[in-house]
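Example 3.2
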Amino acid sequence: MARRIVQALAVSASAVGALVLAPAPSQAAASACPAPPAVDGFYGYQGSVKSGTPLRSGPASTCGGSYISGSVAVSCWYVNSAGNVWYATTHYGTLRDGWVYGGNFTSLNMTLDEENYCDGW
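Structure, written as tokens:
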């Protein structure tokens, strides 16, 4: 009986030690829904989105947000881990910043090139 208690304590201690020694997750992994870079409504690219378009808190369909329609300003584009193009966007009606999936635009005059990529974000 005493031997089983000692073994149980040893297993518990090693499990706790493993938890304590585990590396911290990277900042990117810790924040799956990061805020977009700043969008300049006056100098950003102008566009329009479909009615009921999600303006998300991060560049993924799993990130929360609100629904918008109409005119937007876009500062840059980003490709998420699923390979989908998302745009850092400000909605003119609410002045809220967020991410919009590329398929939700009805118009946008922006080239997907290095100059417009959300670099360093």
